[in-house]
From TrEMBL:
<dbReference type="GO" id="GO:0007165">
    <property type="term" value="P:signal transduction"/>
</dbReference>
<dbReference type="Pfam" id="PF00672">
    <property type="entry name" value="HAMP"/>
</dbReference>
<dbReference type="InterPro" id="IPR001633">
    <property type="entry name" value="EAL_dom"/>
</dbReference>
<feature type="domain" description="EAL">
    <location>
        <begin position="523"/>
        <end position="776"/>
    </location>
</feature>
<dbReference type="InterPro" id="IPR029787">
    <property type="entry name" value="Nucleotide_cyclase"/>
</dbReference>
<dbReference type="InterPro" id="IPR035919">
    <property type="entry name" value="EAL_sf"/>
</dbReference>
<keyword id="KW-0812">Transmembrane</keyword>
<dbReference type="GO" id="GO:0016020">
    <property type="term" value="C:membrane"/>
</dbReference>
<dbReference type="InterPro" id="IPR003660">
    <property type="entry name" value="HAMP_dom"/>
</dbReference>
<dbReference type="InterPro" id="IPR050706">
    <property type="entry name" value="Cyclic-di-GMP_PDE-like"/>
</dbReference>
<feature type="domain" description="HAMP">
    <location>
        <begin position="293"/>
        <end position="346"/>
    </location>
</feature>
<dbReference type="InterPro" id="IPR000160">
    <property type="entry name" value="GGDEF_dom"/>
</dbReference>
<feature type="domain" description="GGDEF">
    <location>
        <begin position="378"/>
        <end position="514"/>
    </location>
</feature>
<dbReference type="Pfam" id="PF00563">
    <property type="entry name" value="EAL"/>
</dbReference>
<feature type="transmembrane region" description="Helical">
    <location>
        <begin position="12"/>
        <end position="32"/>
    </location>
</feature>
<dbReference type="Pfam" id="PF00990">
    <property type="entry name" value="GGDEF"/>
</dbReference>
<dbReference type="GO" id="GO:0071111">
    <property type="term" value="F:cyclic-guanylate-specific phosphodiesterase activity"/>
</dbReference>
Amino acid sequence: MKSRPFWRSLGGRIVMVFVALLLAVQGVSLLLTRLGIERSAREQIDVRLSHGEALLREQLSQRGELLQAGAATVGADYGLLSTLQGEVDADTVRSTLEDKLGRLRPARLAAVLDRQGRLLAAVGPQAAALAQQAARHDDGRWQEARLVRLGDLPCQVVKVPIGQRGEAPSGWLLAAVPLADLLPELARLAQAELSLIGPQQVLASTLSPARGTAALAPLLQAGPAAQELTLAGDALEVRRVELPALGEAGVPLVLSLSIDEAVRPYEGLQGSLLLVSGLGLGLFALGSLLTARRLTAPMQGLVDATRRLGRGDYATPVATVASQDEMAELAQAFEGMRQGIAERTEHIRQLAFWDTLTGLPNRSQFEDEAARLVSGEAGAALLMLNIDRLERVNQVLGRAAGDQVLRQVAQRLRALALDLPERQPLVARLGGDEFALLLPGADLGRAREVARLVQRQLTEQALVLDGSTVDLSAGVGIAVAPLHANDTEALLARALLALTECKRRTAGMLAYDPSIDAGSAQTLSLLGELRQAIRGQELRLYLQPKLRLADDQVLAAEALVRWQHPQRGLVPPVQFIPFAEETGFIHELTLWVVDEAARQAALLRAQGLAPRISVNLSAHDLMKPELQQRLRTALQRHGAEPGWLCLEITESAIAHDPQRALQTLHALKAEGFRLSIDDFGAGQTSLAQLIDLPVDELKLDMLFVRTMDQDADKASMVGALVRMGHDLRLSVVAEGVENAAILQRLRALGCDEAQGWHIGKPMPAEELPSWLQARALLASVQRA
């Protein structure tokens, strides 16, 4: 047995309690220190961003003044003025403008306009667009620097007259600097990172390319308030600044400062605090450990003794404790326990691995030995036997006679094993009337030969018990490793399957075949998949409309369940409903249908529709005492009323336990549910039972309805059932209406409601409203 981890020992818990308290105190202290540092850093960042914004606006104003001065100098230049005298040549103007552009640095865009504002020449990308903006927004104040968007590119622009001061201008000079070109210098002067934001994207940024700018996207439509963003793992505090622009919304710039860089100067202080805390924690833990060891040392000897006992060492005496306190008494009690356990262990060992009745190895010893033999390269064959008629012997002659049969079978199997040429054949009693014979190295053919020898050994000589002759025989199931399985557990399971099928077929002996357990595996798989279908929301509720024949109105629908399997697709109910009924899982399916039907009923009423939804109840459902409460819970969950549902009960479900079913139906009727007898006429309900049942309607089985247009006898039967239902003051519903002739015949017979593919196929519940609307529209068109 492994030694107990220190943290689970008494001394460890003592140390951990005190260390945890110290950690809590130091943790809170470090946390408060960290929060204070971050709060101080953020306050500093807010101040720096405010100063940065002010510097940014001031620098832009100064840059505008410099641009205006440079443009005024070029506009007064004689060379440029002379190109506008007389007949103007656009190429000459452009050439002169390109020559003068160096004096407009850092301007990269320039344009010359005539007196009427028409473009004569342009230099630089989008300079023509610059001229168009000037013409569109000429408010007489262009000699001041303005911000203008050229496409998505904001620029700082001035417009000055060309000519001598005091004279009428010969034209106009436009000069523009893209704001993105000024960004690095403005960021340096503002002492903050700057990002230029366009209408849909980040246009330019001084942030490191490694950080990326995708996280700035939320600021495209954000307000001016400061925010925190994370770029490439670095926390930034950002502030959006709106710069006024000509003729449109302002130009947004984002100032950002790293919170991590602001906090970094304090990391040394935090490291020192952490180092001091760590040293204090280590000294405190050491002191606590020494104290705990002094308290727990007397118990260590008893712990070691307990571990030895756990390992099965009962020979080593428990060490005595020198003191005369309770620990010494505990040591003496442990020693007495050791001696008692040692005496009983040997007896228990016999009981654990041997069958006391037959003297054969029991299941535990058999599985241990078989694991070694089965895993070998030669493999092994397993014969599993089940004694025939042993329970009958126990009933007629008593348990003692049955025990004698088991002992006789064990003797004969043991004798047979000794005569077999196989090395180390193993015989065991697995339990009850089951025995096993394991043949190392045997193949399937040899296993069949030995099975015949076993049957001959048992049947050759009858057994006489209390004057009665008992013929011994057994069914034998065979499984071979590695042909059928590679481990003992699987081999036993396959042999048991073969034995079970052998007994069912009364075949005497049968070897395992994969087809034997295919049905069992599929059954287990289907049950598991059904449970997963409910948890994984794979089930779908379908609704089939019911037509009221008096006025052709659809005021009801039957709830049907479909299974949308992720691999098999849409599974029809015929493939899983019978199995669910057989296993009792039908109750869970019913509850799911009720819950979904209540939800759909509430949704339909919210849309102004109020069809009554019918739900089928099985015999399993009627036998559940908690059925009423669970139905009530489902309705309350969705705000539905009992009268919105009609519970359909088959005749066979009532016949299963009429008294119990009648009690349940009265309780459901009192709750407010509408009740219906489903498949009426094909079951076992008598007229006397029908009178006592608190139902509201009869639903005629489709066996009578779907061929009544071709069979007069069935039509007469339907008419009789309709009249009987009305005499009992019950509404009558016919299902299986497949054509118009049947529908017309039912209407003539006075049937109240009809259901079938001619009226409407089962459809997903969410499609019913649109189906009802389409039907109403078609009816109105036909009436018109």
